[in-house]
From TrEMBL:
Species assigned in the record: Micromonospora matsumotoense
Localization terms from the record: Cytoplasm
HAMAP family per record: DnaJ (MF_01152)
Name assigned to this protein: Chaperone protein DnaJ
Protein keywords: Chaperone, Cytoplasm, DNA replication, Metal-binding, Repeat, Stress response, Zinc, Zinc-finger
UniProt GO molecular function: ATP binding; heat shock protein binding; unfolded protein binding; zinc ion binding
Family that this chain belongs to: Belongs to the DnaJ family.
Length: 387
């Protein structure tokens, strides 16, 4: 019996057909030769070997995947390839049961089969735009005009990418599959690998006559003007989503989303913590001691607040519902007024005498404090329970 060598067999030559033969032509050639060399008709040992070759050739050429390997110069029934009746097949006790097992081991069951061309039309990317707003705008909302530089649908070709009156053409290099395959011989046999077609970039089609406006991309870049509605109560860092206002995808694909990111400018009076506002107001020492009335200008009104007599440094006044409106729900945050009591740094003779006289009436003379051991001694006595 003849042994099969490592050279790929000419399966087309065995059946006597050309490489462009159709499935019907291959089937007719097989039936004709099978009747001629069948062991029941022709008992010659050479005829029996010929009949095995005819069956192997028909097995390969009637299978699109195996025929593709042959067209690439490989042999799916070669040693290690594991075809039916081959050394690596069930009768050969090779390391793999068959050709498909070897492909599955390397490529997870997807090897040998075409993945198909990738689509020219794909979804567009999202875009992010930074928008700076004042505190008043973030607090009460605003309709802000924005300018966006993005890709939009090409109006000349409506996203097709082809010039007027022309169409896409099937790639001749890959036959429209979007990938090309090659056969490599390894210690396990022949392995088929696929890679994207470099001619059509994996699309399976080419553009013989690209659109003169978009150069075949199906989209062009332009500057658009939009108006975004900012709701009341947004905070720094929040994003407003505008659906399908981002980049149009290649080939006129669905546009992505546009995200408007809010950046709140620092305010010269108020600082913000959530929906509450904070500010600092300096009052004279005498006003804090005697009490006074302050007029506070809030974000949207003026409020009069009373400073009680004897107010201490660091005291805080709370104005309810004078902060930022809540983003979700009703109501507003509060406004906190932090009081800084200002002590005079320079006194004239009369003012100093008045303060000393005032200190005497309260028993707070400097000499009296020194006589009792000073300020820190009095603090110590206070902690120790001495009056």
């Amino acid at each position: 019996m003849r042994t099969r060598n490592a050279v790929a067999r000419d399966y087309y030559g065995i059946l006597g057909v050309g490489r462009e033969a159709s499935d019907d032509e291959i089937k007719r050639a097989y039936r004709k030769l099978a009747r001629q060399f069948h062991p029941d008709v022709n008992p010659d040992p050479e005829a029996q070997e010929k009949f095995k070759d005819i069956n192997a050739a028909y097995e390969v050429l009637s299978d699109d995947r195996k025929r593709q390997i042959v067209d690439l110069g490989g042999d799916p029934l070669a040693p290690g390839g594991g075809g039916a009746g081959g050394p690596g097949g069930p009768a050969g006790a090779g390391p793999f049961v068959g050709f498909q097992d070897i492909m599955d081991a390397f490529f997870g069951g997807a090897a040998g089969g075409a993945r198909g061309p990738r689509p020219r039309t794909r979804p567009g990317a999202d875009a992010i735009l930074r928008l700076e707003l004042d505190l008043h705008e973030t607090a009460f909302g605003v309709e802000a005009p924005i300018t966006v530089d993005t890709a939009v649908l090409c109006t000349t070709c409506s996203g097709a990418g082809t010039a007027a009156g022309t169409h896409l053409a099937t790639c001749e290099a890959c036959g429209g599959r979007g990938e090309v395959q090659s056969v490599q011989r390894t210690f396990l046999g022949q392995v088929v690998s696929a890679r994207p077609c470099t001619v059509c970039q994996g699309y399976g089609t080419t553009i013989p006559h690209p659109c003169p406006t978009c150069a075949g991309d199906g989209r062009v870049r332009t500057r658009r003007s939009l108006t975004v509605k900012i709701p009341a109560g947004v905070e720094d860092g929040m994003r407003i989503r505008l659906a399908q206002q981002g980049e149009v995808g290649p080939g006129g694909g669905t546009a992505g989303d546009l995200y408007v990111e809010i950046h709140e400018r620092p305010h010269d009076v108020y600082s913000r913590k959530g929906d509450d506002l904070h500010c600092r107001v300096t009052v004279p020492m005498t006003a804090a001691a005697l009490g006074t009335r302050l007029t506070i200008k809030t974000l949207d009104s003026e409020e009069t607040v009373d400073v009680k007599a004897g107010t201490q440094p660091g005291s805080t006044l709370r104005l309810r519902a004078r902060g930022v409106p809540h983003l979700r729900g009703t109501g507003r945050g509060d406004l906190y007024v932090h009081l800084d009591v200002r002590t005079p740094t320079k006194l004239d003779v009369d003012q100093e005498k008045m303060l000393r006289d005032f200190a005497k009436t309260r028993g707070e003379e400097v000499a009296e404090l020194s006589k009792q051991g000073g300020f820190f001694s009095r603090m110590r006595d206070a902690f120790n329970g001495h009056a």
